[in-house]
Amino acid sequence: MKKIVITGANGFVGSALAKKLLNSGHEVTCLVRTGSDINLIEDKKHICYINYDNLEEIEHVLQNKDILIHAAALTRARKWESFIKINIELTDTLLKISNNSSIKQFIFLSSQAVIGPAINESSRKKEGDSPNPITMYGKSKLLAEDIIHKNAKIPWTIIRPVSVYGAGDKDFLALFKMVKKHFVFLNSFRTKYYNLIYIDKLTDIIERTINNKTVFNDILYAANPRKIKNNELHKLIGEAINSKTITIRIPEFLLFPIASILEFFSLIFNRKFPVLNRDKVKEFKEDYWIVDTSKAKTKLNIEFNDEYLINFKKTYQWYKNKGWL
C-alpha cells in the first residue's frame, strides 16, 4: 500500500485513477482546485482542495506521501500563455517540491501529442523517436517532459496515453451522440488510423508503474496496439448502441473555417473553448496517429485483446445511466 497524491483528480482520467487505486487498497489524496466540478469523484472524502499558487499548501499535502501522479492538464485553450501556466509551470513547481519531499516517484501523464503523427501505416511511433508536436498542447507537454528530464532528483515515469475513451469522457460523447442520431461527420475522404485506449486499461497501466523500478526514468506509451480506422470507429460505436449511421464526409479545407466560427461563438457567448479549434485541426488533418506499444507490454506484463466493441458498449451504458445520452 502506497500513499499517493493525484493532481487533476476531478478530471476524466484522474477520477478513474483515484477509484482504481482506492480499490487496490492505496491511500489516495485527490487534489482539486477550489470551485472545480467534483461529480466524477465517487469517494469525496479523499478530496483535498488546493491552491497551486500557494507553495506551502503543496508542500504540506506532499508531506509523508510516497507517489505523486501529475494528471492535471489543460488540453485546449485560446492562448499559449494558458498552456504555459498549467502544463509547464505547474509541472515545474510540483517537481521542485517533490525533489525535496518524501515523494519517491514522480509519475507524469503526458500525451501522444508530444511525439506527433507517424508518416505511414507501418511506421508506428516509438518512445525513442524525436518528438514532433504539431499543436500548442503537444508542445507544452513536451516542454513539461523536458523539465522532468533535466531537473528530477527522484525517479520519474512518463506515460503518454493516446486518445482515451470510457465512462466520464466528454470528448467521445459527441461522437456517440452523432451515432445515436444516425449520422457521422468524417473530416476527410482518406482513411485515417488511430490507437485508442479504454480508461480502465489506462488506469491499470498507470498502477503497474507505481514503485516499478523497471520503468524508473523511462517513457511509455499507453495504447491498445490494434489500430482502428476512422470509418471503422463509428461503425463499431453504431454496433455497440444498435444504431445505423449515414456518413457525411467534410473536405479538409473546410475544417479551419468551421473551427474559426466555433471559436468565435465560444468567445462571444463566453462558452468553453471548442474541441474543434484551429490548433486541433492540425491533428485532425493527419492520417496516422499510431504508436508502438511493445515497451509497455514487455515492462508491465500487460495484455490487450480486441476490446473495442465491448468497451464501447460499457461506455454507452454509462452515458445512458448518467443521462448524458
Number of helices: 11
Helix content: 40-55%
Q: Could you give a short account of the major beta sheet?
A: 7 strands, parallel
The name of the CATH architecture of the domain at 3-169 and 194-225 and 289-305 is: 3-Layer(aba) Sandwich
Helix and strand element order: EHEEHEHEHEEHEEEHEEHEHHEHH
**What would CATH call the class of the domain at 3-169 and 194-225 and 289-305?**
Alpha Beta
Class by SSE composition: alpha/beta
Shape verdict: globular
Low-confidence stretches: none
Question: Roughly what is the average pLDDT, rounded to an integer?
Answer: 94
Structure description:
The protein is of the alpha/beta class. The protein has a domain at 3-169 and 194-225 and 289-305: NAD(P)-binding Rossmann-like Domain (Rossmann fold, 3-Layer(aba) Sandwich), CATH 3.40.50.720. The protein contains 11 helices and 14 strands. It has helices at residues 12-23, 55-62, 80-99, 136-151, 171-180, 199-209, 230-241, 255-268, 278-284, 294-300, 308-321; strands at residues 3-7, 27-33, 47-50, 67-70, 105-109, 156-161, 163-165, 183-186, 193-194, 196-198, 218-222, 228-229, 246-249, 288-289. The protein has a 7-stranded parallel beta sheet, with helices on both faces. Strand 5, helix 4 (136-151) and strand 6 form a beta-alpha-beta unit. The longest helix has 20 residues, at 80-99. The mean pLDDT is 94.
Summed up:
The protein is α/β, with parallel strands linked by helices and 325 residues long. The protein has eleven helices and 14 strands. It has a domain at 3-169 and 194-225 and 289-305: NAD(P)-binding Rossmann-like Domain (Rossmann fold, 3-Layer(aba) Sandwich).
